[in-house]
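A favour, since you know our structure tokens better than I do. Would you make up a two-line entry for one protein for me to read? Write everything out right here, beneath this request.
=====
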Amino acid sequence: MSGVPSRLGIDFISISPFCAPASPPPAMRELDSLGGRAHAPRTQTMKHIIPVINISGLLLCIVGCSKPVEESSLIGTWQFDAQHSIMVLDASHAYTLKGDDGRSILGEWRLEGHRLITVGQTWTNQSAAIRVSVTNDTQITELTDSRMVLKNWGGPVSSLTRIVTSH
């Protein structure tokens, strides 16, 4: 068997001793003509991708490392801006969602990071109370003294305004 060396150090071997030495396939000739720099365009692309990845990581850290939500800032009465429904979050973690039609859902709430999770346990109207299990897991995307914005996982965004009650 005879070998034909290339500049890349790869020997092309002829199968038959009766044939002329095999020539490299076209793709190998093209690679050899580049002087082994076939990955230069990918390297250039990676030089541009690395800063994008770094910036993305920084933004994730800023969002993920933002100030945690304090439970005390959620306690109170909130009205949904697009509806006439009222949500009450009590200091004892009692939760009430009052519709403008007289129906309510009573349950509990908890805070996990920036997630407000409400678990409705009883549905009521003027004449009945029915045990239910309704869990709503929302992300708090904005919270001020007077405004809260909740993003439902896979659902709509709800804006709420705090109702100041006099005692």
